[in-house]
């Protein structure tokens, strides 16, 4: 038992399976947001994808963020604080970009807009200007991680706080605070509002459990043994989860979709536990595949694998920019929803457009960086 554990920290390198998981998460987001950002009715294929994604999705991103906070080279309270401020700023800069993308087609379609379309545009502008999503909740969570790091909290403290927050969250969600400004800030953190996509309240446990897991994972001397011992437990939890879901909600996809959606946005402790079990199963499968193919510690030749790793490396850019394409397409369509087949056509269009923006930005940034380094080296001589 626990033959994979070492008293020393021996597993401190790159954990490639989690890089792949974030890349897969981005692929799912491309698909799901093609319907959500254009307010289009979902077909059964998308509903099925969403139901699966509700057990991973944003949970993958936040869990791995917490995990990465332990493996990061800049894992200091000051570093976390800087990341917190930067991510919250990113959120609101991103919001301005969302609004700009929505308004870009307006001069072209304004003459033919119906009242319904005009009202939709007005509502969306108000929502997007205040919108909080992954960047915002990540920023708030980094504040908590900075505090725990500063206090040099024990691993069990992370687990205890994560569990306590999960248990308390349903009782404080949407709790009104009738104090100007403060009440609005509290709403962003724990409240329900049209402009709040995810709340730090519900997703903080994923990060804390991820950080606690990483502290233990650094002591794993045999990842193969670890996964083979842990995965049966995770599979058992996953099976119990799905049995309970089907017993409670049946197999009607139209009933499952809203039920799973609610749990995805506001997960309780059981949902968080089941989600992490799903994440670990996926991580184990990816690790075993990488080990079998011999690519666990090097860049793969397979173009799909390379692209998933590129998504992981630049995931903040992809997440920020991909919605711009959907918003612009939505505007060109007169701020009206699409049919399902049109949404699926939008997916590869968005992927290619976002790819061009991200790689174009990275190429320009690299050139500017090299010029600065050349000038700095020249000035030193």
Structure description:
With 381 residues, the protein is mostly helical. The chain has 16 helices and no strands. It has helices at residues 16-36, 44-53, 57-71, 77-103, 106-109, 115-130, 134-150, 155-172, 182-190, 200-217, 223-249, 253-265, 269-293, 303-313, 315-332, 340-380. Helix 1 packs parallel to helix 15 (315-332). The chain is globular. The N and C termini lie far apart (60 Å).
How are the SSEs placed, and which strands pair?
Layout (H helix, E strand, L loop, with lengths): L15 H21 L7 H10 L3 H15 L5 H27 L2 H4 L5 H16 L3 H17 L4 H18 L9 H9 L9 H18 L5 H27 L3 H13 L3 H25 L9 H11 L1 H18 L7 H41 L1
Residue windows where pLDDT falls under 50 for at least 5 positions? none
Q: What is the H-and-E element order?
A: HHHHHHHHHHHHHHHH
The main sheet comes to: none
**Total DSSP E strands:** 0
Strand fraction equals under 5%
Average the pLDDT over all residues and give the rounded result.
93
Distance between the termini: 60 Å
SS class = mainly alpha
Please, how many helices?
16
Please bin the fraction of helical residues. over 70%
Overall 3D form: globular
Radius of gyration over alpha carbons?
22 Å
List keywords for this structure.
381 residues, 0% strand, globular
Summarize the structure.
Helix content is 76%, strand content 0%.
């Amino acid at each position: 038992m626990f033959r994979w554990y070492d008293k020393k920290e021996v597993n401190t390198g790159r954990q490639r399976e989690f890089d792949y998981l974030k890349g897969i998460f981005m692929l799912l987001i491309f698909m799901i947001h093609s319907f959500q950002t254009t307010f289009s009715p979902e077909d059964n294929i998308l509903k099925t994808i969403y139901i699966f994604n509700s057990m991973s999705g944003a949970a993958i991103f936040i869990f791995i963020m917490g995990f990465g906070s332990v493996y990061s080279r800049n894992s200091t309270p000051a570093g976390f604080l800087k990341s917190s401020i930067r991510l919250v700023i990113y959120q609101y800069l991103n919001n301005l970009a969302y609004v700009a993308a929505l308004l870009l087609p307006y001069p072209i379609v304004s003459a033919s807009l119906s009242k319904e379309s005009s009202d939709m545009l007005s509502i969306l502008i108000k929502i997007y200007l205040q919108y909080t999503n992954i960047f915002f909740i990540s920023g708030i969570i980094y504040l908590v991680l900075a505090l725990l790091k500063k206090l040099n909290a024990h691993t069990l403290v992370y687990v205890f706080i994560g569990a306590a927050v999960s248990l308390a969250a349903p009782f404080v969600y949407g709790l009104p605070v009738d104090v100007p400004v403060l009440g609005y800030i509290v709403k962003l953190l724990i409240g329900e509002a049209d402009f709040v996509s995810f709340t730090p309240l519900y997703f903080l446990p994923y990060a804390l459990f991820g950080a606690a897991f990483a502290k233990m994972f650094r002591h794993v001397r045999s990842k193969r043994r670890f996964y083979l011992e842990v995965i049966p437990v995770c599979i058992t939890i996953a099976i119990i989860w799905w049995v309970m879901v089907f017993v409670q909600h049946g197999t009607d996809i139209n009933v499952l979709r809203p039920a799973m959606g609610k749990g995805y946005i506001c997960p309780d402790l059981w949902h968080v536990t089941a989600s992490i079990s799903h994440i670990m199963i996926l991580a184990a499968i990816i690790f075993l595949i990488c080990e079998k193919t011999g690519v666990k510690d090097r860049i793969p030749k397979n173009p799909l694998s390379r692209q998933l790793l590129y998504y992981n490396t630049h995931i903040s850019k992809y997440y920020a920019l991909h919605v711009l394409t959907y918003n612009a397409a939505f505007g060109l369509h007169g701020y009206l929803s699409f049919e399902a087949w049109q949404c699926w056509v939008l997916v590869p269009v968005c992927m290619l457009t976002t790819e061009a923006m991200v790689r174009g930005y990275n190429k320009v940034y690299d050139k500017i960086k090299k010029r600065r380094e050349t000038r700095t080296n020249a000035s030193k001589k």
